[in-house]
């Protein structure tokens, strides 16, 4: 059974995360984790905090596994890892309706702006715009109380948070201003540094979220209902609500227009990722069989022309099925990742390490002057992997290998050269645990 992971959230940060009337976690961030559960079957237990500062204290001390919505920073990277951004929203300042429209933080030089305790923006604003007076508060409620009393001139917060709060509380005496010269508020998922596999999984989840998914989520949590009526007060309230909705829509249009310039880059990046996934192993990140064959064919053409030696090493993990059966597939997957990481450091930058099957790897060793160089690479491989590995759950295991090394004859067909070591490697696994096979005109077997 997959263990349940704990995720920290604050109780009243609408629309990102909050507790509804039935006591259930809701919001944009929670919907992201629902998608993760649907795709992977992993379950999450949400730990609710009254204040952001308390949440960060628990996360820093390792009492919770993840944070649903957090902005990555250099200081936080000392104790946590982060996924890429799954949501980006402009910052806005809430003021009285009498305030003229502004779009720059410079308009608030010499004025007092409230920010909620624990926001990363507090540090950034004080460093970049020291002319702005910062008032740190515990909640949006406290900030609006100070705004009503005239103690502060505005409340700086995420646009969705500000609009959602005014909407939920019918506070139409205020308006929001989208601040264009501040960087967007970035939403990442924070993961404890010892949960590398969970980080990789959450990164894949974030990367898989489509524009349609985001549209569905934002429609769910930014919906404003206007109640119709014939009473003049209700009618006036609806008119004010319409003006507020128009303001939010205009701000959203400005926000998305600003992102259009980055859309092409994002699409190119997505296409690059898809091409990478098509040619690489999803678990280890190594080239797959298709990419390996392509590089092998290119190398053969090049080596024939330059009269160089080309070698291919076939690496097979012995007893891998027993690891899966005894400790589970999660441990087996982690073992494959650890082995692939070590294989990367064996060869040179010009060599190719690929995963072609469940526990089967190949290394394409190129640009050799003689066969002795490839033998040295094989010896280095054996020294690197013939050691104990510490796997998850602190399991100590010895990796045993079957290795075949073939020097390709440029005068022989490619498939004839590659069939020999695979057949020999399978038969040798019954007799020995580590072997180097050197097929020339006649096959020689050296036992190590």
UniProtKB/TrEMBL annotation:
Record EC number: 2.7.7.65
SMART domains xrefs: GGDEF (SM00267), PBPb (SM00062)
Domain (GGDEF) ranges: 308-441
Protein's UniProt keywords contain Transmembrane helix: yes
Transmembrane segments: 234-257, 385-408
Assigned keywords, A-Z: Membrane, Nucleotidyltransferase, Transferase, Transmembrane, Transmembrane helix
CDD domains: GGDEF (cd01949), PBP2_BvgS_HisK_like (cd01007)
Domain of life: Bacteria
Molecular-function annotations in GO: diguanylate cyclase activity
Keyword NADP belongs to the record: no
Matching NCBIfam families: GGDEF
Protein name: Diguanylate cyclase
Native source species: Psychrosphaera algicola
Taxonomic classification: Bacteria, Pseudomonadati, Pseudomonadota, Gammaproteobacteria, Alteromonadales
